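Summary of Year 1 activities. Much of the first year was spent building the evaluation harness for sequence design. The harness presents a backbone, in tokenized form, and records the residue chosen at every position. We chose the following record to illustrate the format because it has been used consistently in internal testing since the harness was completed.
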């Protein structure tokens, strides 16, 4: 079966889901869950994503993502590879952590109905999995690993910057106050009591084709007009969404190759290194390593791209150099000018 086209555009909303390979666990303990959220935070910093909701289950996760730039594919690739690599190292495993491709359903996020239904669907996932027993007085808030307990129920100063909880509350018609946040939780708890194991599921009208517009199995979640608009967008792309040139154009956005190239060019100028001198230096040169560390941590470029641009040999050499040298070690060996430039770029 042919792979579905990833439709990307600035300001898009997506319901993203991914399961473990063979439906096996992707989170063995709370440490794995905390690390996933740490990587998600880094992905948001690199791509500019805004996350409107998330939930981590044992063998899958759900994200409600807004992409101010057209960069879902490159961001998701980095996120899943990073999580899988760390998981395998920590648990001494090998092979694929996630099964098949992640699913990304386009969402008509500027329409309150579709926004609200997806927000509830994600937050009520633990209830559908019977991890919450409302008949015994348990609340959906008792499940720690969702953006409800991990964000919406918290005051603004205690939330992650990348979580768009204030927007979610506003769409629900609630104030971002103690009272408004409590009302959100109480409404979800009522839904659990009323709907049981089907909490958050949406009954679709007969005229709606669930193979197209659906929270879980369609390719978009929105009005029919929205789906038609997306089909027109695919037509304008002319199939380019599956070509290497299209993937490169995504990475050339501000958080990809363009930003990395800008920083490297400026850093080499400060270090007084031209192209010939760069080639003559060993891959472990501290100036190379420092610039590599900057673009690896702050953009979505690959280690292969870094290896080629900074003449560091292979991606494996880049990886080894980044592991060996901490920022504190590098700062002691860099010139004050280069150290100041990198410190400024990191923040």
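For this record, the design step produced the sequence shown next.
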């Amino acid at each position: 079966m042919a792979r579905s086209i990833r439709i990307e555009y600035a300001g898009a909303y997506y319901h993203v889901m991914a399961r473990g390979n063979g439906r096996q666990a992707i989170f063995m303990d709370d440490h794995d869950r905390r690390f996933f959220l740490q990587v998600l935070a880094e992905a948001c910093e690199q791509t500019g994503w805004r996350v409107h909701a998330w939930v981590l289950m044992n063998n899958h996760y759900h994200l409600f993502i807004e992409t101010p730039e057209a960069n879902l594919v490159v961001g998701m690739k980095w996120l899943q590879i990073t999580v899988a690599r760390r998981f395998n190292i920590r648990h001494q495993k090998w092979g694929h952590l996630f099964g098949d491709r992640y699913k990304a359903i386009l969402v008509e996020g500027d329409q309150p109905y579709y926004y609200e239904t997806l927000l509830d669907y994600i937050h009520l996932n633990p209830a559908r999995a019977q991890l919450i027993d409302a008949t015994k007085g348990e609340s959906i808030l008792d499940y720690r690993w969702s953006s409800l307990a991990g964000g919406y129920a918290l005051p603004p100063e205690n939330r992650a910057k990348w979580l768009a909880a204030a927007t979610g509350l506003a769409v629900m018609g609630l104030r971002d106050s103690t009272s408004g946040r409590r009302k959100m939780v109480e409404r979800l708890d009522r839904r659990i009591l009323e709907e049981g194991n089907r909490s958050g599921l949406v009954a679709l009208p007969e005229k709606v084709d669930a193979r197209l517009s659906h929270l879980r199995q369609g390719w978009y979640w929105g009005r029919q007009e929205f789906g038609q608009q997306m089909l027109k967008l695919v037509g304008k792309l002319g199939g380019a969404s599956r070509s290497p040139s299209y993937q490169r154009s995504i990475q050339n956005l501000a958080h990809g190759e363009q930003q990395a190239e800008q920083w490297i060019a400026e850093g080499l100028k400060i270090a007084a290194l031209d192209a010939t001198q760069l080639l003559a230096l060993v891959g472990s040169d501290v100036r190379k390593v420092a610039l590599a560390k900057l673009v690896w941590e702050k953009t979505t470029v690959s280690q292969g791209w870094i290896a080629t641009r900074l003449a560091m040999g292979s991606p494996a050499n880049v990886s080894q150099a980044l592991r060996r040298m901490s920022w504190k070690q590098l700062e002691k060996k860099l010139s004050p000018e280069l150290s100041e430039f990198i410190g400024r770029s990191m923040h």
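The chain has a mean pLDDT of 87. Quantitative recovery figures across the full test set are reported in Table 2.
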